[in-house]
């Protein structure tokens, strides 16, 4: 319930911008709720790592981390948040960042592209309370941020990561959390723990015999020829189109001993070098600094997983092509958030209904005529699994896990691909009930509309609009805070790729609302024109007490050289 929450409305009129021009460093950010953690609790902030990533390909930052003992008993915290702050200047592509602790990937981020001269700074604050059982034990902490310094690429990323532990009290009780988090990862100890697929990634996982609930979290993002997977064309239409094949449908699957246990239709994260880099500064595309993850309820498989033997858990990404193939590559990983029974006796039970076909039902149609190639790929997916589970202490749980998802992607390559229109939507409902009680809920809708119109026949000068949303009610597990987010972003601009230096401009309008199951709220409406923030209104219980300050930039700032990555590998730099 929301309760009576004092609304703090902050507005930053454009006229006030001049006097806050204290620094010309561009402040980049992704719209997101501040961590919903008790600011009046005692806090212990510790530095986890500080590292400048220059030429860092294959050279992850690896540190030993020990939790603080001065904010109450270790593991009894009311919450944990991370502060990742980065500065950069120069020219550089966006890079992927993978945070791993105890071999569990718990945060996938990416870097805004820097500007030359004074450069950029960004801070992302992330609530990591759901990983409390990891942070309660000392262990190896890895940040993989593979950056390249080479001709034309001199931007380094100077990073610092702090963790803040919030002491619990009568007013702010210890945050509930999984008893155990098991990695479904490469288990590497010298780099981030995500696996590259295809081929499918598989790992033998042994689950404690007294496990009674298991919730799996999936991480997945397209890379290389799969970065713009939603722009790929079905093989039957790809012909000479300026894009890759294997179609635009992607399904991330988790399998247990070869049986599909749950799937996700991923949200399309556009990195800051994507299509029109100037549209993503200073406001990144939604998700670029904190890629969404997907939870599935693996509890129906507990009777199988608790036999004391290793089980083959696989992660892969498949398409709507006949052979389900995709290009190279996606990075995937996962973790199992496990609840144990108080007794040490094994859990028993059986799966009673298993309706989880290997693949979604898909359809591809299209028409080719004149100078156009138009096509539509649709997919629907239903999973229904039931199980009866008996804990060692005798508690019975009837589990029903169902997923119902829809996907549609229409692309029109008009006038010899001089105009490229994309309309995609992925939506669906995940629901699990345990003894009839709603336990895992995910209701989502991710519409994505893109218009790329060439201004020159070589396609090196173009104008783009991206209109996309992230609308999601998510309750990942009974011990993880649930939330409802609605986010709408319309961004676009003009861009020219030139050997003498890329140039362009951009606008961004964002409307974001957040409410969680504790009643915390946050709303933000923020717009930018080129590198200037033109309006910013924040309200809700989580809104900062001080209005954020942004520098103002003269038109000269536009003469920077963001690195563009285009669908189909066109243009580039
Ligand atoms: C985040 O860390 C940066 C760098 O240490 C610091 O300047 C900033 O104040 C921190 N922000 C918050 C909200 O703690
Ligand atoms: C810009 O980056 C260079 C290294 O690439 C560094 O030496 C310089 O201090 C940076 N300048 C600023 C203003 O941060
Ligand atoms: C890292 O992993 C390798 C291979 O699994 C192993 O041989 C090595 O001992 C590990 N190193 C540490 C510090 O755990
Ligand atoms: C899992 O372990 C079994 C033996 O228990 C072995 O045959 C199999 O190759 C292993 N699978 C993986 C993916 O490591
Ligand atoms: C694990 O399951 C995957 C997916 O079904 C399969 O491709 C792989 O061969 C299996 N691995 C082993 C060792 O059984
Ligand atoms: C492709 O779609 C566009 C609308 O976006 C339409 O005007 C055109 O006629 C279509 N071409 C074909 C061959 O279907
Ligand atoms: C695509 O963008 C171009 C350039 O802004 C515009 O002229 C055209 O009307 C847009 N097309 C659609 C279907 O919105
Ligand atoms: C971006 O540049 C284009 C082409 O010069 C121009 O038409 C447009 O008005 C500019 N937009 C902004 C927001 O500056
Ligand atoms: C930013 O705003 C200032 C003040 O309104 C204006 O002078 C400047 O031209 C703007 N810069 C850009 C890049 O649009």
Task: Give the averaged pLDDT, no decimals.
Answer: 93
Discrete helix count:
3
The shape, in one word, is globular
Ions, cofactors and other bound molecules: 2-acetamido-2-deoxy-beta-D-glucopyranose
Multimeric organization: single chain
Protein name: Peptide N-acetyl-beta-D-glucosaminyl asparaginase amidase A-domain-containing protein
Region (Disordered): 534-573
Pfam families: PNGase_A_C (PF25156), PNGaseA (PF12222)
Domain Peptide N-acetyl-beta-D-glucosaminyl asparaginase amidase A N-terminal: 34-355
Account of the 3D structure:
By secondary structure, this protein is mostly beta strands. It has one domain. It contains three helices and 31 strands. It has helices at residues 132-135, 235-238, 302-305, and strands at residues 10-11, 26-28, 43-53, 61-65, 79-88, 96-101, 104-110, 120-127, 139-145, 157-166, 180-184, 195-197, 201-205, 211-222, 251-256, 259-264, 294-297, 311-318, 330-340, 348-355, 361-369, 372-390, 396-414, 419-434, 437-454, 461-475, 483-496, 503-504, 507-516, 521-529, 532-539. The strands form five sheets. Strands 1, 20, 21, 22, 23, 24, 25, 26, 27, 28, 29, 30 and 31 form a 13-stranded antiparallel beta sheet that branches. A five-stranded mixed beta sheet has the order 2-8-5-10-3, with no helix packed on it. The structure holds 2-acetamido-2-deoxy-beta-D-glucopyranose (9 copies).
């Amino acid at each position: 319930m929301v309760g009576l929450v004092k609304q703090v409305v902050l507005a930053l009129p454009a006229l006030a911008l001049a006097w806050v021009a204290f620094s010309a460093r561009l402040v980049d950010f992704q719209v997101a709720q501040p961590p919903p953690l008790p600011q009046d609790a005692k806090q212990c902030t510790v530095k986890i790592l500080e590292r400048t990533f220059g030429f860092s390909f294959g050279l992850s930052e690896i540190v030993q981390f020990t939790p603080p003992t001065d904010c109450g008993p270790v593991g009894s915290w009311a919450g944990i948040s991370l502060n990742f702050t980065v500065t950069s200047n120069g020219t550089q592509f966006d890079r992927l960042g993978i945070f791993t602790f105890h071999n569990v990937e718990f945060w996938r981020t990416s870097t805004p592209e820097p500007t030359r001269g004074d450069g950029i700074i960004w801070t992302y604050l992330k609530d990591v309370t759901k990983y409390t059982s990891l942070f309660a034990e000392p262990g190896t902490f890895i940040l993989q941020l593979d950056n390249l310094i080479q001709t034309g690429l001199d931007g380094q990323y100077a990073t610092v990561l702090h963790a803040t532990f919030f002491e619990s009290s009568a007013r702010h009780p210890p945050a509930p959390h999984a008893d155990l988090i098991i990695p479904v990862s490469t288990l590497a100890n010298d780099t981030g723990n995500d696996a590259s697929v295809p081929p499918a990634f598989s790992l033998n996982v042994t689950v404690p015999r007294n496990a009674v609930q298991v919730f799996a979290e999936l991480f997945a993002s397209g890379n290389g020829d799969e970065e713009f997977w939603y722009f790929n064309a079905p093989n039957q239409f790809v012909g000479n189109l300026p894009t890759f094949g294997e179609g635009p449908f992607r399904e991330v699957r988790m399998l247990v001993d070869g049986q599909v246990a749950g799937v996700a239709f991923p949200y399309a994260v556009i990195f800051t070098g994507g299509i029109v880099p100037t549209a993503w500064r200073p406001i990144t595309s939604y998700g670029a600094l904190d890629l969404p993850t997907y939870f599935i309820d693996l509890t129906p498989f507990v009777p199988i997983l608790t036999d004391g033997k290793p089980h083959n858990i696989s992660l892969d990404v498949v398409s709507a092509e006949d052979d389900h193939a995709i290009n190279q590559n996606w990075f995937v990983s996962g973790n199992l958030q496990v609840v144990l029974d108080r007794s040490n006796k094994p859990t028993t039970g059986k799966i009673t209904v298993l309706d989880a076909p290997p693949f979604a039902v898909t359809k591809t149609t299209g028409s080719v005529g004149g100078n156009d190639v138009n096509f539509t790929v649709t997919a629907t997916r239903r999973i229904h699994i039931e199980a009866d589970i008996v804990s060692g202490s005798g508690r019975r749980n009837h589990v029903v896990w169902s997923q119902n998802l829809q996907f549609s992607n229409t692309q029109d390559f008009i006038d010899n691909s001089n105009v490229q229109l994309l309309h995609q939507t992925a939506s669906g409902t995940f629901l699990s009930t345990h003894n009839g009680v709603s336990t895992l809920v995910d209701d989502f809708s991710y519409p994505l509309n893109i218009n790329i119109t060439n201004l020159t026949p070589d396609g090196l000068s173009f104008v783009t609009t991206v209109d996309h949303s992230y609308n999601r009610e998510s309750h990942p597990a009974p011990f993880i805070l649930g939330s409802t987010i609605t986010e709408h972003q319309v961004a676009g601009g003009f861009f020219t790729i030139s050997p003498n230096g890329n140039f362009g401009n951009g606008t961004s309008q964002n409307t974001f609302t957040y409410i969680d199951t504790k009643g915390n709220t946050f709303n933000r409406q923020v717009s930018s024109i080129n590198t200037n923030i033109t309006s910013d209104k924040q309200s809700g219980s989580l809104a900062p007490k001080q209005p954020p300050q942004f520098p103002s930039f003269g038109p000269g700032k536009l003469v920077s050289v963001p690195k563009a990555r285009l669908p189909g590998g066109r243009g580039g730099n």
